[in-house]
Amino acid sequence: MSLKKILVCLDADPQPSVFDGVVAVDSGVDFLFRHGGVAAAQVRDLVYGAMFTRGPQELKNTAVFIGGSDVTAAEALLKAAADSFFGPMRVSVMLDANGANTTAAAAVLAARRHVPLSGAIVTVLAGTGAVGRRVVRLLASEGARVRVASRKLTHAEGTCDKISRIVPGADLTAWTNENAMAAATAVEGAQAVIACGPPGVELLPKGYLAQAAGLQAAIDLNAVPAHGLGDVAPTDKATHHGAIVCYGALGVGGTKMKIHKAAIAKLFTRNDLVLDADEIYAIGKEL
Question: Is 161 exposed, middle or buried (CB count within 10 Å of its CB: 0-12, 13-18, 19+)?
């Protein structure tokens, strides 16, 4: 008798994410155990409940998914889960709070289709948020020369410093996108730009992309008007605006969903996986 696939969903938000639950079911999960309002101090006992009910050879049929809207809180839950494991007693775990990891992976993969990333200059507008930091990290791992832009230069500098300690040899420089002219300056001379700003915040108005010498690809992850890049529509998917190939949030969304489902399925292949940004990006590259 084959064991059912159980996914334990841990969410710092009061109500567990419906989105994450639906995707899990569509990925072949048999049962969801959904917990909302989870604090880091509660994680160990929840993970123990998942670990001690099945033998070591059966634990690949149980996994933990950490979601919610607060990525910082989710990172604390991930650490608490990893700290709960010992010896063979462990289950695979995945973090994708607010879709940060799968969205970042999909965005970098979109850029990678059109621009050889090693040695390329890539500007990440709003590069200090949850998705932006992951985009910067993945680009740095690919050998890109990344311009990390933020409304506050000190925030960009902090992100550069943190990622430089994670990715050896990362080529990162801090820029500002405090206004349209500053954002345009950050994009000038880059081969690709990825806008990771919050919903409804325009970072680069319409007409600016065409003025950016050498720009080959533009990706905007904001689906809510006003869009991050005024020249990019949410539905753009490898759409050419002049010489620039463009992806909007919905254009990237299909890849993001494929990565999400593939990562969930991967959890049940073994019991010792920890799927964070780099691991989820690697799964995306295999699709």
Answer: exposed
